[in-house]
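Thread: "does anyone have the structure for this chain?"

Original post by V.I.:
We have the sequence but no experimental structure in hand. Need at least a predicted one for the grant figures.
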Amino acid sequence: TSSLAIVSMIASSPGKLYTPYRRLIFGLSMSDVIQSTSILLGPFSPPKGSPFAPWGFGNTTTCTIDGFALIFGSTSAAFYIMLLCVYSYCKMNLKMSNERFRKIVEVKAHLFIFTYTLSVCIVGIITKSFNPLVGGGTCYFARYPPYCGNIPEIVGECTRGFPAIKLYLASTLGVTSACFIVVMALMTLIIRNAIW
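Reply from O.Q.:
Generated one for you, tokens below.
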């Protein structure tokens, strides 16, 4: 993918990870590489014989690893997109230097992104919430067997992934929505500052 090319170009360039912008782009690209790899391997990771996963030839462990990578990559990517907007706002509107941005915002943001995403993924492992999605395309936060929460009399009672919906709200929907709102607000402020 292009993200892999960006990661290798930054890693092999003379400036490497010298500026906040390069570090943020590196973080975003690494997140995308993790997410893209998970999506690529997703159809093959569900346990063999899983309903709605005809290409699945893995096991519970491969499904958990794939789900972990997908959640970790996609959630951290959303955070890094938002952080790039924070960086742009700080540079353009607040005239913040790279060193000041690093000290005040960047280090804490990297730690938060890593800690939050890792925590959500660990909770997903502990609660056995990484399971094949109904479409069989990948493993994600889901109950197992599919539809067990809706029609248990047909597919049986749920055996895994009881808090999957809460984890989905905390990681995917919650983070994406919050990041979108912050990005829109910051971009509005940047444009307003540029026009006036």
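V.I.: this helps a lot. The longest helix spans residues 60-92.
O.Q.: and Strands lie at 130-132, 139-141.
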